[in-house]
Amino acid sequence: MYYLLKLLQNVLKNIPRRAGYFIFELLFLFNLIFLPSKRKATLKKNLAHVLGREAPDSMVREVYKNYARYYFDLYQDKDKIFPHVTVTPQFHSSHDISNELLKKKRGLIILSLHMGSWDFAASYLAKMYPGRANVVVEKLPEAAFKWFTETREITGMKVIDEYDIKSMIRALKNNEVLVMVTDRDLDKKGYKLDFFGKKAYIPSGPAKLALTCGTPIMFGTMTRDKKDPLKFIPFYDPTVINGEALERTEENALKLTQQIIGLMEKYISEYPEQWCMLQEVWLEDKE
User: Fold this and answer.
1) How far from 139 is each of 161, 176, 210, CA to CA, in Å?
2) Based on the number of CB atoms within 10 Å of its own CB, is 57 exposed (0-12), middle (13-18) or buried (19 or more)?
3) pLDDT by residue (tens digit) across 225-281?
4) Going by DSSP bridges, is the β-strand pair 191-195/177-181 parallel, antiparallel, or unpaired?
5) pLDDT-derived band of residue 181, with 50, 70 and 90 as boundaries?
6) DSSP, residue by residue, 116-185
7) Is 39 part of a structural domain of the chain?
8) Which residue, 244, 114, 104, is CA-closest to 182?
9) What is the tally of structural domains in the chain?
10) Which are the contacts of 223, defined by CB distance < 8 A and separation ≥ 6?
11) Among 58-67, 99-108, 135-144, which is the least confidently predicted range?
């Protein structure tokens, strides 16, 4: 598997993105239309929770197309993609806030979503915080994990296994940046809180980690331009969570997590067609 991924990387890295997107979109749409999949049904349920109604087929197709583009971007040279990022004044302002927070030497947690191109988002943050950007990743099978780690480290990320809490704490104590996605709880061991009005599985780790280390939290995404999927628009919300370094209590952990949920709902509502969530999130979908 590792060598197959390396081979694909060598082949695909030189294919123009527009052509690569077209090929990958066809493959993913074929899967959507012709192959049975529990993940497809789960995606439709997740979108229905967000919209408050059944998701139109056009939106489901768009999610699959975005997922296809995300996978193709994994194989691309990120230096060729960076010039296609449109940086807004709001983003610059929020980035200034993050730098002021780092001056307090408590580290910084940046939370994100499986939205747009989340791996490229981490690459972009590694460029913004050279030598200080750590990304927490899902523990995959060994061969895939090795390839993903190498691919991410090329762009300056320091990769931390999702179960390696000591390395996360060490990074924050060293006043570094810790990047985490927070829209799914695969182990279903976190909180069960309202998310778009219904109980959902929400990770408790980000809030508890922030309280343990006295670290502030910010929230950001890397979405695709709705008019041109080759272009990206980073959003870096100016809201600072745990800015006062609250005491580590269960009450405060819940408080921070609910603030995080509010930001998740904000960005998912604006870009539901770019939220690639094919795992179960809501409790009622397990019944």
Assistant:
1) 6, 22, 22
2) exposed
3) 999 999 999 999 999 999 999 999 999 999 999 999 999 999 999 999 999 999 999
4) unpaired
5) very high
6) S-HHHHHHHHHHHSTTTEEEEE----HHHHHHHHHHHHHTT-EEEETT-HHHHHHHHHTT-EEEEE-S--
7) no
8) 114
9) 1
10) 115, 116, 232, 233, 234, 235, 267, 271, 274
11) 135-144
**Is-contact 46 60, C-beta < 8 A?**
no
Q: Is 201 helix (H, G, I), strand (E, B) or coil?
A: strand
Name the pTM for this structure: 0.94
What is residue 238's three-state secondary structure? strand
**Residue 252 backbone dihedrals phi, psi, to 5 degrees:** -70, -35
Dist CA 22 CA 28 (whole Å):
10
Residue burial 19-51, b: 16+ Cβ < 10 Å; e: rest? ebbeebbeebeebbeeeeeeebebbebbbebbe
Whether 144 contacts 198, CB under 8 Å: no
Find, among 23, 6, 118, the residue nearest to 68 by Cα: 23
Q: Is residue 21 part of a domain?
A: no
**What is the domain extent for residue 201?**
79-286
Domain-located, residue 48? no
- Cα-Cα-Cα-Cα torsion 239, 245, 247, 253, nearest 10 degrees, comes to 30
Q: How far apart are CA 287 and CA 282, in angstroms?
A: 10
Residues whose CB is less than 8 angstroms from the CB of residue 182 and which lie 6 or more positions away in sequence, other chains included: 111, 112, 113, 202, 203, 206, 260, 264
pLDDT in tens, 158-169: 999 999 999 999
Whether residue 50 is contained in a domain is answered as: no
DSSP state of 203: -
Q: Is the pLDDT of residue 126 over 80?
A: yes
Residue 23 structure tokens: 């090929």
